[in-house]
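Q:
Just now I want nothing more than another pair of eyes on a protein record. Here is the record:
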Amino acid sequence: MEYPVLGVVVPLLGCLLSAASSTRPECIIMQEIEEERSQCLAELSWDNQTSGCRRQWDNITCWPEAEVGEVVVRPCPKYFRFLTTFLGNVTRNCTSQGWTDVYPALYAVACGYDSNSTPGEEQTAFYGTVKTGYTIGHTLSLIALTAAMIILCLFRKLHCTRNYIHMHLFMSFIMRAIAVFIKDVILFESESEHCFVSSVGCKAMMVFFQYCVMANFFWLLVEGLYLHTLLVISFFSERKYFWWYILIGWGAPSVFITAWTIVRIYFSNVGCWEEVVESPFWWIIKTPILVSILVNFILFICIIRILVQKLHSPDVGHNETSQYSRLAKSTLLLIPLFGIHYIMFAFFPDNFKAEVKLVFELVVGSFQGFVVAVLYCFLNGEVQAELKRKWRRWHLERFLGSDMKYHHPSLGSNGTNFSTQISMLTKCSPKTRRCSGFQAEFSLV
């Protein structure tokens, strides 16, 4: 028996779920229906009923075997929870002629579906806007972060532990943006039906996506650990600590993602592994991310407390307006670097204020890489000074080089003397570089 309600329910649920998880919208519904159908048909083969009504799958609900004259009451299918908070029951009678039709009404009415109150085009437009928003955000972040990486890599005077950590954080943002674009293309723009297809490439893409997301959170944690260590410990081996930071930022996510992959292969090797919200194995990924968010928030509070103490120390001026201004600036600078905004919804259920959460985490979060690149590269005093120095040197070499070429051929033929003299003027001792790097770190806070 076919029920036309499926043709209405599935598209509507698709609208509601398009951004709730990484699963393609209609796949969530179809997978639940397929699971119930498979279970019902498996139990059907065990039935030994010779009289009355046999177990039946009506494309929506599984009806158990019943004797003639028996009234069977079944709850509405569980996927109706996405459409309404009222979940009623449906009833069928077993007669000598077989099963009767569903009553007191069809599934849609009996299960609380109201076509007038169900979100339709507005909901679809909302999720479309969210997708457009985070696509723009990740694109801007990708461009800004790539430019920042090039700048920090090219200029050797900017090479220090602090900037090395920034570069790893930038790379994690770049990888995350690329993973989001790949995921959207495969899961949302592919015309082929993949709800029940389990290709190795699709699963590998989801593993890569989850790794990039977790690595990004762990490098935010590394930024917090490094700055806290810099403020608390007067002297420490930056090289030694740096390798521990590498292990935390790239190594720890590898362990958790490998564990999640093995568990999915042996215990839940279904589809493209895009269904994560309803899966109990999702906690293998979610728990480390929540811990990193919580630890970073604690480090953020500790760092702000240390800054408050430093601002009230006798060595600092007692202009309260200036002190609070510096503290406010420090706090605002650290929020994007530590990812503090994630704490707002991290420990709430996934369905709590779902629309606000989607906008905040997907759209606002997609611009985090852009903000970090601007604050910690393009607006950084050291970076700006180095760019200006290189620009002035290039102009000076160009002007004097052409002038020497026409007026003093002997000097023009030996350009190494001139460039060496300029290099000597711009060099500084290692002690000065270390001191300036330390001050630059504090200039951010």
Confidence is low (pLDDT under 50) at residues 1-22, 408-445.
